[in-house]
Amino acid sequence: MGVRVITDSTAALDAATAAENGIIIVPTVVTLGGVSYRDGELPLQELVERFDEGVSTAGPPPGAFAAVLDGAQHGAVILTVASGLSSVHRAASVGAGESSVDVRLVDTGTSAGALALVALHAAKVAASGASLDAVEAAAREVADEARLYGALKTLEYLIRGGRVNGIVGGLAHRLGVQPLFELRRGRIGRLRPAFSRRGALNRLIKLWRKSRVDGARLHVIALHAMAREEAESLLERVRAEVEPETALVAEFGAVMVAHTGPGLIGLSWWWEEG
Predict the structure, then answer these.
(1) Dihedral of alpha carbons 102, 246, 39, 127, sign
(2) What single DSSP character describes residue 219?
(3) pLDDT tens per residue, range 35-53
(4) Where do runs of H (alpha helix) occur along 101-223?
(5) pLDDT of 193
(6) 131: which residues sit within 8 A by CB, 6+ positions away?
(7) For the chain, which residues score pLDDT lower than 70?
């Protein structure tokens, strides 16, 4: 066994893909109607149907990180969602402090598909027998390069959660506004909105196309929240122009959906040069 690669469940990696690549996932927590569930235990459909019972999210306890570090003789790299968005990074730091393992803690500044791409690359480097320093460096390189863009289908859940003013949100809903955002280097940037679903998906493709690096290998993940067909279509549009080295369709986790509701669609990628 080489360097252990660990991330949290905000990364859009299903259990099978994580296991196949030797990545350990530490689940975040969603509390619905006063009952707490580890991310992945609660079907998204149920979360949406019971949204009015009250939803909150939390990072894993520090002990969850300490537990997965046990026996990591060659050290471990822990990759977390952006520290400004969640308590995960803090919990990982405390958990690492409770372990005798040599741990490199990386705040990736991102989440979802971009975090997944960081973890996949770090795991690939670790599997080659690389040192702890090399795995950490590889993770930081991708974290700096990976892009994550998303489009919300509705503002309804942001309004219901008190994150958007009801009057403003209601007007935007009537106008068919589809908010777009970018999460990169720890910051959520609001982009010019689209005014239809088709327009939002077209914008995601245009953003990806604009970033293209000639001669580089593409790693891409199309993301969705209960909208798999749209994510698959998005990935096919990318494939019509470039055949990726990594190409996945993945679902946003419950923590993300607890804030945005269903219909969220996203695209994450990075271009590997050299």
Answers:
(1) negative
(2) E
(3) 999 998 989 999 888 988 8
(4) 112-127, 132-145, 156-160, 166-174, 197-210
(5) 87
(6) 3
(7) 1, 154-176
- The position carrying tokens 């909208």 is 227
Burial of 123-155, coded b for 16+ CB within 10 Å and e otherwise, reads bbbbeeebebeebbebbbbbbebbbbbbbbbbb
Angle of CA points 115, 121, 122, to nearest 5°: 90
Domains observed in the chain: 4-143 (3.40.50.10170), 147-272 (3.30.1180.10)
Contact 227, 2 (CB under 8 A): no
The pLDDT value recorded for residue 151 is: 92
Q: Which two tokens stand for residue 41?
A: 């235990």
Residue 256's pLDDT is 83
Instruction: Give CA torsion, residues 190, 51, 115, 73, to 10 deg.
Output: 150
